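B., you asked whether I could sanity-check this one before it goes into the benchmark set. Here's the sequence:
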Amino acid sequence: MAVKFDADRWLEYRGFMNCIFTKDYLAAISDFEQCKKATPGRYVMDHSYDFYIAISLLQLNEFKKAEDILTNEIKNEKKQFGEDGNHYMTLFYLGITKLELHKWDEAIAEFDKAIKMYSHFSDAKYYKGIALSKLGRSEEGAKLWKEAKADFEAGYTINEDNAVYERYPYQFNGWKYIH
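And here's what the prediction gave me:
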């Protein structure tokens, strides 16, 4: 209802809510596309509209489209914030797209960049372990999973503000199954 009365203020937040909370990814994409036309270049909850569009596309199994958007987002972040200005979550989700596209080495490279910025990022370590295993480096992957499990148990996971209320896409929670 708030969007009806003040779309400039509330449409981007509804898009965020659709992406993270209600998991209505088509609605999230629609909201953020409208936002891009009305107020290009703005951010909501520390991320660009394209960041959330890419997450939504990942959830809709549109991996190549998500990869293209996140690759462009990485370039935009560097342009806006400097060579080391990428957000570790953007790198993480680009790694996820590479993983989904079976680009194992590229996924590992993106996860490494995210882990360099957030050294205890259990989710990135978990998915990097999968990519390592897919490359036949199972021992290295298993070692990383143990490290990821310890980080997770110490409270290190996706630490977006709203992650305390709702799990983010690809946020891992199955550590009890990893020995």
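One thing to flag: The mean pLDDT is 90. Otherwise nothing jumped out at me.
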